[in-house]
């Protein structure tokens, strides 16, 4: 292995070549174009980014330059030479431990207590752990040892260095210090070092000096919190008041993580700030409220739905995050198999009729609805949605929110919008006979109507329509098809290993014992040890063929409908999921949790 004494473009590329991560051609290409690339990155950084961070960011490291070429790893299609991969190779070469920083596992106090932020920024170091008098510090440059000695003397601590990518370190410095600094500044402004753990003191304090929600520090604390949640791709933020503190948690890929513990003193001002942003009544603290915030992150609009509920120790806030990357996808990237996709595409291109999407809460129905409407949207088409509540505000659609409290329900809105000449109508959910009848009415008068139902599978949707009182001949005349769907977690590609199904598991899936291979994720840094990354849709598509129409009567049996649909080629949710398992997309475990 070539010895390295300094991080230069040449040293790093030679090392990567030596490790077999890049080819000789790529090596010479990177060396030839490296300087120009560095200049380009420099210009990019100058254009964006905060002024305070500029000094650090201006020093483009050779690792950043190489990573910016986005080279595919040799023999590993789909995996790229990222800052992380390069940093890991350098760590091995210089005999240091490599650390992929997981912000969710960091202790806020350790990160911010030992090293002042300007010092961290200047030297690109961040404290990541402290145990038994040893402070573990992540550094981006393995050769900048003078600074570590300086720190050891100043803090009177033994210091252990680990190597992390500059990108990870900067992320921590931005997010953690930013939130912490805002919280601490807000706290200081309101009190003079009082013991916040003490409840009596807290009440006394609040009496004379309440922190305002428009305090700049509170504003930035909330901004940092939202930004951090978006960056972590969380779906929900929970702000939970406890007796003596407030807990902030994020839900990521369906799992809750504790993120911050903040002083109770700041609970009310932070909640007020969020209520203000979501246009709620600030004075109302005893009744639940709902609101929404539209904001921007990485040049895309993000919709937040906020709700507050009074609990024992104050108002609990839950913020649901609607990321357009998740809610609006290309139909062909959602997990449909080709046959199902072309069937579904043929459904939504019909001029009139009803399409039903069915599945439990959290099965991705809204994503399918929004993505379908989006694929149909054009200036010539008038799309109207009736939702309870509006999930995400989209300019292309005319969206109407149901207001049950004042008697404006699905059916009354539907009756009115039919007069407004829509082409396509999306009805959030068919819950009652009136709404079902309105959908039928819309279809009969030449509209395409899309809606959802809560049933387990596609054939059950037909039975549900009958139960709601729609006559069989009207179902046959209007229903185009039904989609039943679920979401399964995808196996993390970085830690995927073969999983051998045992005899019981094979029997459960009705597979014979012949050479069926399945996989699972072992858990790695990329997937936070869960073994899963991202989710995929499982779709069962039932087409209302002439034969199915002909068997629909008021007394039709669910099993007869299902059998007939299967005979005509419909694959059940279980079959589709099993297929995805055998293809290595998901696991046996996920099929079990999906099918209950
Ligand atoms: Zn993994």
Walk me through this protein's architecture.
- The chain is α/β, with parallel strands linked by helices and 596 residues long.
- The chain folds into 3 domains: 9-168, Type II secretion system, protein E, N-terminal domain (GMP Synthetase, Chain A, domain 3), CATH 3.30.300; 169-321, Beta-Lactamase (2-Layer Sandwich); 327-487 and 537-570, Rossmann fold (3-Layer(aba) Sandwich), CATH 3.40.50.300.
- Helix content is 42%, strand content 22%.
- The strands form 4 sheets. It has a 7-stranded mixed β-sheet, sandwiched between helices. A 6-stranded antiparallel β-sheet has the order 7-6-5-10-9-8.
- Helix 17 (433-444) links the parallel strand 14 and strand 15 (448-453).
- Helix 1 packs across helix 4 and helix 11 crosses helix 12.
- Residues 192-210 have low confidence and may be disordered.
- Bound molecules: zinc ion (ZN).
- Zinc ion binds next to loops.
- Residues 492, 494-495, 521, 523-524, 526-527, 531 line the site of zinc ion.
Write out key terms for the chains shown.
single chain; about 600 residues; alpha/beta; GMP Synthetase, Chain A, domain 3; Beta-Lactamase; Rossmann fold; 3 domains; seven-stranded mixed sheet; 24 helices; about 20% strand; globular; binds zinc ion
């Amino acid at each position: 292995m070539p010895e390295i004494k300094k991080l230069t473009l040449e040293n790093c590329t030679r090392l990567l070549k030596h490790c077999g991560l890049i080819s000789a051609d790529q090596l010479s290409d990177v060396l030839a174009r490296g300087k120009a690339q560095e200049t380009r990155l420099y210009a990019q950084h100058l254009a964006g980014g905060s002024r305070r961070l500029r000094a650090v960011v201006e020093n483009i490291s050779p690792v950043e330059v190489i990573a910016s070429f986005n080279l595919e790893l040799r023999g590993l299609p789909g995996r790229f030479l990222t800052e992380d991969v390069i940093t890991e190779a350098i760590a091995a070469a210089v005999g240091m431990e490599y650390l992929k920083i997981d912000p969710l596992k960091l202790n806020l106090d350790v990160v911010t207590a030992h090293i002042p932020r300007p010092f961290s920024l200047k030297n690109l170091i961040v404290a990541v752990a402290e145990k038994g008098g040893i402070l573990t510090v992540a550094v981006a440059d393995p050769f900048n040892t003078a600074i570590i000695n300086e720190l050891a003397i100043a803090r009177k601590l033994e210091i252990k260095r680990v190597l992390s990518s500059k990108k990870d370190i900067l992320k921590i410095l931005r997010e953690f210090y930013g939130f912490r600094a805002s919280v601490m500044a807000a706290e200081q402004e309101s009190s003079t070092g009082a013991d916040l753990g003490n409840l009596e003191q807290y009440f006394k304090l609040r009496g004379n000096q309440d922190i305002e929600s428009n305090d700049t520090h509170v504003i930035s604390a909330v901004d940092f919190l939202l930004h951090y949640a978006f960056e972590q791709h969380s779906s929900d933020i929970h702000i939970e008041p406890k007796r003596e503190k407030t807990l902030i948690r994020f839900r990521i890929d369906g799992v809750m993580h504790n993120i911050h513990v903040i002083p109770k003193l700041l609970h009310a001002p932070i909640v007020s700030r969020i209520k203000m942003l979501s246009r709620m009544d600030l004075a109302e603290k005893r009744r639940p409220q709902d609101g929404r915030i539209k904001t921007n992150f990485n040049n895309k609009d993000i919709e937040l739905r906020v709700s507050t509920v009074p609990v024992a120790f104050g108002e609990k806030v839950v913020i649901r995050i609607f990321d357009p990357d998740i809610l609006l996808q290309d139909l062909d990237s959602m997990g449909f198999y080709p046959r199902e996709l072309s069937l579904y595409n043929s459904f939504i291109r019909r001029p009139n009729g009803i399409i039903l999407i069915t599945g439990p809460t959290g099965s991705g129905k809204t994503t399918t609805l929004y993505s379908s409407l989006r694929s149909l949207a054009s200036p010539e088409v008038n799309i109207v949605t009736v939702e309870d509540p509006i999930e995400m505000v989209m300019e292309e659609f005319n969206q109407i929110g149901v207001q049950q409290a004042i008697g404006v329900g699905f059916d009354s809105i539907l009756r009115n919008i039919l007069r407004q000449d829509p082409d396509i109508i999306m009805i959030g959910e068919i819950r009652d006979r009136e709404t079902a009848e309105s959908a039928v009415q819309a279809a009969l008068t030449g509209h395409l109507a899309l809606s959802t139902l809560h049933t387990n599978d596609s054939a059950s949707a037909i039975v549900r329509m009958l139960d709601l009182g729609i006559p069989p001949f009207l179902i046959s005349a209007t229903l185009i098809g039904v989609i039943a769907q679920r979401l399964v977690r995808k196996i993390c590609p970085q830690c995927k290993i073969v999983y051998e199904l045992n005899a019981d598991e094979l029997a459960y899936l009705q597979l014979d014992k012949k050479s069926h291979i399945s996989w699972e994720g072992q858990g790695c840094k990329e997937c936070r040890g869960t073994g899963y990354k991202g989710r995929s849709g499982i779709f069962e598509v039932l087409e209302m063929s002439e034969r199915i129409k002909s068997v629909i009567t008021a007394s039709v049996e669910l099993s007869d409908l299902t059998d007939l649909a299967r005979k005509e080629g419909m694959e059940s949710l279980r079959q589709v999921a099993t297929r995805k398992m055998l293809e290595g997309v998901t696991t046996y475990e996920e099929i079990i949790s999906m099918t209950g």
